[in-house]
Amino acid sequence: MRHFYPIVQNAYVVDDLDEAVERWHAALGIGPFFVRRHLRLERVVYRGRPARLDFSAAYVQSGAIMVELVQQHDDEPSAFRDMFASGQQGLHHVAIVPDDFEGCLSRYNRMGCPVAAEMHTCAGRGAALVDTRRLIGHMTEVYLPTPGLQRLYSEVEQASRTWDGQRLRIEIDPST
């Protein structure tokens, strides 16, 4: 069976989300950035154990790829801190949306790439960060294709096509 997982997102850990939005816009001219501050997750599991995670994210479209900027506000152990200590930044993960979420996670596990973190929303499991560093140098986020995820991707992509350059940040509810 052929496995093909197109990349839909590149995500970068940043030290200061607002400063990073300004810097990315200045460097690439992209916008608008959809910003979720202190995302509310029902449950986080890190390396098989319950965990806490306080982070904010900004999403922007650049051509066919969504770019996510992530700032972790605390120093709790996390898949983000596995790669970057506080004050460090860089490419953290790419995201994919496979047809078979559980099958994809099982396949990575058989390849020696364990799930580093699971994020659960009020609708249930939403995403898993798989530690694919030994294969491709960074993590891979595996999304469960939910209506909320599909709506976010659609809104960000549409906004990038019609953006007039005026409103750089669009603040959105962190629970959506």
CATH topology: 2,3-Dihydroxybiphenyl 1,2-Dioxygenase, domain 1
Question: What is the global morphology?
Answer: globular
Quaternary status of these chains?
single chain
The CATH fourth-level homologous superfamily = 2,3-Dihydroxybiphenyl 1,2-Dioxygenase, domain 1
CATH architecture: Roll
Work out the strand percent: 25-35%
The structure class reads alpha+beta
- Which ranges are low-confidence, i.e. pLDDT below 50, for 5 or more consecutive residues? none
In what order do the strands lie side by side in the largest sheet? 4-3-8-9-10-7-1-6-5-2-11
Enumerate how many helices there are, as a single number. 5
Gyration radius, in Å:
16 Å
**Overall residue-averaged pLDDT value:** 93
End-to-end separation in angstroms reads: 35 Å
Top-tier CATH class: Alpha Beta
Helix content: 25-40%
Q: How do the helices and strands follow one another from N- to C-terminus?
A: EHEEEEEHEHEEHEHE
